[in-house]
Design goal:
By secondary structure, the chain is an alpha+beta fold. Helix content is 34%, strand content 28%.
Length: 98
């Protein structure tokens, strides 16, 4: 079964209190769905389109279906709601194609 990945590039870091709450709630979702953080950092360079986010996160799940279920879960909706619409990001879910 192909693994699934959340690929997230954040363009801003919202209010630190809101973000701390989001991080705690999102971690509960990852624990619930056995998600593993592969990359979480803010040291990146753009080599082609000059679009650089402030933070890139890659999370691995046991399957693509699990990655989608985690994103659509009540716990992750609660995490996102805690940000009150303040986070600008690009969010993708991909299948392991290797």
């Amino acid at each position: 079964m192909a693994k699934g990945y959340w690929i997230v590039t954040q363009q801003n870091i919202p209010d630190q209190n809101l973000y701390a709450t989001y991080a705690k709630l999102a971690k509960a979702t990852l624990d619930e769905f056995n998600g593993r953080i592969v990359i979480a950092g803010n040291n990146e360079e753009s080599y082609e389109d000059n679009e650089v986010g402030l933070r890139t996160v890659v999370i691995e799940f046991d399957s693509y279906e699990t990655a989608v279920a985690a994103y659509n879960s009540r716990s992750y909706k609660k995490a996102m709601g805690s940000l009150k619409g303040t986070l600008k990001r690009d969010f993708r879910i991909i299948r392991n194609a290797v």
